[in-house]
Specification:
alpha/beta, six-stranded parallel sheet, 13 helices, 16% strand
């Protein structure tokens, strides 16, 4: 038995971890942030795949039988290859899940106009993963994407409440809705973005539903474990959360504590 592994290139996955702990509080969790090599959003498919596989293998060594890629870029650029090519060879009884599919599955029941907006990092937008998956699950839905390269730096520099955030959030929202004012469902396709929700809600047109991934992924995990008791039985149940980072621990702890709303003490590891 072991913890549920949660991986992100940096800090954004902590918003997923927070909701996972709320939905399944008795489980143990091991969070790994590859902060030393973040951001992943502008890196090539090959590098993101290699980095993500290294992280997954590290979490497996730490006893995780289930790993969640709480990173849209890793989910877009690495998940499919790891699931199809690597797991059958290195760990056929273990599982790696992402955040894109649960989010996409929630879209079809939410949109009324059939026009969906996506805010994401440049890497996720360039991958086309959301358009591909939405077309599979909700054919005919029109997806309008917009990359927001400044949103992650705003969050990680603790400027989410500052006037600079207002400027960039409004600018990006205006750009997206300029493509189609009938967008009625908005996907926040980066796990950092929920930190900016107060600003996003201020500038998004009235009546638009905003899909934040934490709650969606948490609900999907509960459903997954109910359908896969062979995975559920390998999860240890001590209600703990442990943190690893590839950056210096002190630097990670400061920002991670702000994300989680509680003190965080991480250990530094190499991948």
């Amino acid at each position: 038995m072991g913890p549920i592994g949660v991986f992100d290139s940096g800090f954004g996955g902590l918003t997923i971890l927070k909701e996972l702990r709320r939905a399944l509080p008795d489980a143990d969790y091991l969070y790994l942030g590859d902060n030393a090599r973040a951001p992943y959003g502008t890196r090539s498919f090959r590098l993101v795949y290699e980095f993500t596989l290294q992280a997954v293998q590290k979490l497996f060594v730490q006893g995780c039988h289930l790993v969640i890629l709480a990173c849209n870029t890793a989910s877009a650029k690495a998940l499919r290859s790891i699931q199809q090519l690597d797991l059958p060879l290195i760990a056929p009884t273990r599982r790696v899940l992402g955040v894109i599919r649960p989010t996409v599955e929630a879209v079809g029941s939410r949109t009324r106009s059939g026009a969906v907006g996506l805010f994401a990092t440049p890497g996720t937008v360039a991958s086309g993963s959301y358009e591909i998956e939405i077309d599979k699950h909700s054919p005919g839905t029109r997806v309008y994407t917009h990359a927001c390269p400044m949103w992650v730096p705003l969050v990680e520099n603790l400027e989410a409440d500052g006037p600079g955030a207002d400027y960039f959030v409004k600018k990006d929202i205006d750009a997206l809705f300029g493509k189609n004012p009938d967008i009625d469902t908005l996907i926040l396709g980066c796990t950092h973005y929920p930190i900016l929700l107060p600003k996003i809600r201020r500038y998004v047109p009235a009546g638009v539903e905003i899909l934040s991934q934490g709650e969606i992924v948490a609900a999907s995990l509960l459903d997954y474990l109910e359908r896969h008791p062979e995975i559920d039985e390998h999860i240890s149940r001590g209600g703990t959360a442990t943190y690893l980072t590839t950056e210096t621990a002190d630097k990670f702890n400061h920002l991670a504590s702000a994300f989680m709303g509680t003190p965080v003490e991480a250990d530094t590891v190499r991948l």
